[in-house]
# Entry
Amino acid sequence: MILEPFKVPIYTNTLSLDLDNKALASYCINLSKSNKGRQVSNDGGWQSENLPMSDISNLCNGILSEARKFATSMSMVNTLAIDNIWANINGYKDYNLPHKHPNTIYSGVYYVKVPKNSGLLTLVHPAADSMQYDWNNTTITKRNLYNSENWSLRAEVGRLYIFPGWLTHFVRSNSSKEKRISFSFNIKVI
# Structure
């Protein structure tokens, strides 16, 4: 028998709202033309300042609805609100460095444009720094959810991922000549 006392929950769903992902992508492109953005975890690419949620209310409502389902499924408080949301545009060879989102219960990403080979969202095992010594390619015959230091998730248009804010994650380099566009967000308990 294998006990699993410390599971890391990742919520995923395709938002089934009447979201116009092409319009959301255009919104992001237009913002990037009129605003220099900010540098946080991004190496290259463009990241907006925090956005007014009224500009993207359908998206925010969909994210919040799914976050509440996620919280309920884990027997956690589901009185939640989006704390902040921002846009990301990663061009050729752009990526995001490993980072966490402190002081938030959940973080996540929603994809509006995803060219082929435009980079994977990669989650880092909370004990990755210790695992590297003994749980490595000399002792592991096949990588799986129990023995991997990192786990990559495929991006696709309309896909939503929500995960604990304390979970380290990064985005691999965009190998496509086209831009990948997404919204990232933090969720708090109210």
